[in-house]
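ligand=magnesium ion
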Amino acid sequence: MPDDPILQLRQVSKRYPGTLAVDRVDLTVRRGEVHAVMGENGAGKSTLMKILAGSFADYTGIIEVDGRAARISSPAQAKTHGIEMIYQELSLAGPLSVAENVLAGRLPRRGFFLDRRTMVAEGRRYLEQVGLDTHPMQPVEMLSQHEAQLVEIAKALSNDPAVLVMDEPTSALSRAEVKRLFAIIARLKQRGVTIIYISHHLSEVYQIADRITVMRDGRKIATVIPADVDPPTLVEMMIGRPATQAQIERKREPGRKRFRVRNFTRAGFFHDIRFFVRAGEILGIGGLAGAGRTELARGLSGVDPVDSGDMIFDGKYVDPASMRACMRQGIAYLTEDRKRQGLALRLSALTNTANAVHAKRGHLLARRQRKELFSCQAAQLQLHPAQPQRQAAQFSGGNQQKVLLGKWLATAPEVLILDEPTRGVDVGAKKVIHEKVVQLADQGKCVLLISSDLPELAALADRVMIMRKGRFTREMSKVELSENAILLAANADREANPHD
Amino acid sequence: MTDARGDRTANERPEVLWLRRLLGGVGIYIVVLLMLFVGTLVSPDFLTSENLLNIVRPVTLLGIVAVGVMFITHGGHYVDLSIPAIMALSGMVAVSTLGLGIVGSVVCGLGAGLLVGLTNGLLIGYLRLNPIIWTLAMNFMLDGLLRWSTGGNQVYPDYTTGAGDAFVNLSRCEMAGVPGITLLLVVLAAVAHLLARRTCFGDQLQLTGSAYDVAATSGVSVRRVILLSFLISSFTTALAGILLASLSKQGTFTNGQGYDFNAVTAVVIGGVALTGGVGTVLGVVGGVLLIGLLGNIMTLAGWGSFDQMIAKGVLFVIVVGGMAYAARRGGRDDE
Ligand SMILES: Nc1ncnc2c1ncn2[C@@H]1O[C@H](COP(=O)(O)OP(=O)(O)OP(=O)(O)O)[C@@H](O)[C@H]1O
Ligand SMILES: [Mg+2]
């Protein structure tokens, strides 16, 4: 059986200026296995994988591919060794079409010109593999997050890789898509493709991994077989101490109706949305990807224009035409698209934290106040490293998410619209964020929670509205809430109306 | 355990591009000093106060333009290619409105320039037209318009009233031996610095230039910010255009030629990233000084103006290319 290693890493290290991100890692990846890599935010997972994908020329140590030592110092070299990577932060070219992105580097030509027909056909073939039915000539920037993620996977598959590295591929996917991804993984495995899979979701890893490698602080802790370790032990290996299992407690019941939305409509995106949120209530919005939840959130926060509808907060109308007006009345919107809309990656964490506050107030904070703002957010969200001057791009994915959340918490919002707030954060950080959300609710703020993480939704929300095709189709109360119930509700109408 | 790692990183600057660090901010002045040294080797007359003024004088107007254009670059919209036309237009308008008196003429000249800036800003900020294409087209249209409306002739100040002399003296007045326009540049640079660093507008411009979508979803009125950057740029450009007309004692459509490219060069070697979001006014002023020094040294060394143009072009390519290269080496994954 496949016991022969396809990849063998010996004492591999990588140092960023001032940070030893990967520290003398030995790793064996067997041919044809699904090898999960887990660890806290900033443990060095992405960096290790980027080494394999040829992102760095300055790593140290030895990498053997198929038993032969290989120096992988450019993406092209990685490709010749059959290694493909799906990056944590999506890396597609926005203005180009889906097909051009998928077939990048080897676009079909006829003579001197691009062969458009073949391009469409080829593009479609790969898109079908990942179950995406957008038109191949559509520009990528028109796609939603989860579609872009699928395109990214199609792109990697189109190079027919021997080793496919997936860095948190499911963080932008809904449950149905995760299922589809697992089916794809199973198919690839049958074809003998080796898969390295990074995820913070224990359940996913237990479902598909043959072996699990745990990293902590740049070091490899161990490689284990899932059957041999139970989840708590695995978490303990990741964080280096026993995990605590305290339930989050709510301190107060939701009060009066504080935020109301009536007849909210943006043609083609959402229709006739009406709901209210009580003081101190967490209202979940569930639904399948593409149901219009993000579009609704953008409408409610004044980012996108809406056609009609009223928003009333604390008895006052909020003008959805101006984002600044919305912010001033206390609405904050945490985007699901961290890389493109969330953080200015080239600016420092400090600047990113202060940005929204400055826009809201219309004047700058004094330097000292800015610093305080940052330290306060960094401390309560346990940002690591808590360096104000560090560029946002230089934080690990999960820590970028904390910077983003901090940016909006810093505006002291009264209505918090959270779109996938725990995307890409580790188990511990997720708990920190959940506690923070609950704490805000307990202070009487209104929280709208959009999440494709059903356990999260079930655990945090007081009520869930199910959204489908731009409309609220069902409301579920706290007692009805469970993962399965939400899932059923989101899908139920689909079975009822099989035609659309 | 984790803190040990944090501490090690604490004192180190984040990974900035070495080239930008060298050129941007204070670093560029090291290069300026170096050039001063080179200058003394080339000519013994180099460090006379007479020659030092010769270095500054020809680039003062460039400095005034660059300090404004920097705002466009900073906001991620590269450059205003209609600079030559704005300068020509404002100069010609100012000269032909001298009948209104010196103040009226300057106001008219500035107004004409601002009008162009307003058009650019509205079309680029609100309709999202490509800044390069649009301002290039604007330049052509204005150029044509100016030639057509004057029949291809220059306009000269009317010396019959005092306004003509006053206009010509605008660029020639001195204060304690220092040219007035140099002082003006210093004042403008100081104002620009404050605007970029200490105001909400500057903060929002930086965010817009670094990440447009992020700015748009953080409550920044991106369109207004962009409009403002084009207005600022057209204002200083128009000012330079008026002063240039005053210096050359005439308004002509060729007056602003070359200022577009020179301004970008100054901005870029001053360490402002063409991709937006990075750079300082101090650096830009350094870039302007460097261009002045280079020109002066090359002239002293007997280079012709064509050679000088080629040299500047090469310098530009090296700096821009070097920055792009350094950016890629720095592993920036946001582009
Ligand atoms: N471009 C960079 N420059 C400097 N340091 C970096 C850079 N990218 C990452 N780091 C640092 O390297 C360490 C490892 O980061 P890495 O992105 O590999 O973590 P990760 O395990 O993928 O975390 P996450 O689960 O949050 O994605 C972190 O301490 C991070 O701050
Ligand atoms: Mg990562």
